[in-house]
Write a structure and sequence with these properties.
This protein has eight helices and nine strands. By secondary structure, it is α/β, with parallel strands linked by helices. This is Glycosyltransferase.
Length: 267
């Protein structure tokens, strides 16, 4: 597979992010990379999203009722025709030259997916901090999601093997997706380049309310049971054991951060 043959498909789930979605679209267009498609799956937005989408004839988009972000992503993955697929949320943005960097890395036949570093921005697009991601490991993937979805690109053979987002997960669907990929033996590589801007604003799905924290832990326990040889009960005891193991992983992460300057970037 040579560079000239490689087509990139970008999938963007969308719902009422008309304030930001044009930035996402433009960040794909500025890549200076001709062989791409941008697929937007909108869940019947009621704001100005559709008006924005109609301005860009190159887009492949639908606006219809869905079952949420995971369902929209799966619809987009199934529509994708590229050799490489990226997941860009409607409020995030790619940085220049990301596609070229990704293609360069994924021409390696031994690498199936890549992810990189990213920068947090606020609702106005101002950079608030930079984050250098950690080298993820298979065993760590069931505890922490070290892979930022907005910097994640993968070869289409992954979805060709039937690996999609599990719609039963509402918060940790990205962690489940990455754990699934790891546990089928695919090679995921961390690239030390900045790929994207992650926008942090009041409507972020991952804001840590008590409900979100509880859901994340319960879904994490399910992922642990699904992708390890241990089977913990789905009760307070099982959750406590899972949290204990997660804290051990957290200690490992803290030590790694201490020993490797810049592991997590500027905080």
């Amino acid at each position: 597979m040579t560079n000239k043959m490689i087509k990139i498909s970008i999938v963007t789930p969308s719902f009422n992010q008309g304030k930001f979605i044009e930035d996402a679209i433009e960040s794909v267009l500025i890549q200076d990379y001709a062989n791409f498609e941008h697929i937007i799956i909108d869940g019947c937005s009621t704001d100005n999203t559709i008006e924005v989408l109609k301005k860009y004839p190159h887009l492949i988009w639908v606006s219809e009722k869905d079952e949420g972000q995971s369902d929209a992503l799966n619809k987009g993955f199934k529509k994708a025709t590229g050799n490489i697929i990226g997941w860009l949320n409607s409020d995030d943005m790619y940085l220049p030259n990301t596609f070229k960097n990704v293609v360069h890395e994924l021409t390696d036949m031994h690498v199936d997916a890549v992810y990189g570093n990213y920068k947090f921005i606020d609702s106005n697009g101002k950079i608030t901090r930079e984050l250098v991601t950690q080298n993820s490991k298979k065993w760590m993937s069931v505890f922490y999601c070290f892979i930022p979805s907005t910097t994640f690109f993968f070869k289409r053979k992954i979805i060709d093997q039937g690996i999609f987002i599990d719609k039963s997960f509402h918060i940790a669907m990205d962690k489940e997706f990455f754990s699934h990929i790891y546990n089928l033996g695919f090679k995921i590589k961390k690239v030390n380049s900045f790929f994207a801007h992650f926008r942090w604003h009041d409507n972020n799905k991952s804001i840590d309310t008590n409900e979100v924290k509880e859901t994340r832990l319960l879904e994490g326990l399910e992922i642990f049971n699904r992708y390890t040889s241990f089977k913990l009960p789905k009760n307070k005891f099982g959750l406590s054991v899972y949290i204990f193991f997660m804290n051990i992983c957290g200690v490992y992460r803290t030590i790694s951060r201490f020993l490797k300057i810049g592991l997590y970037g500027k905080q």
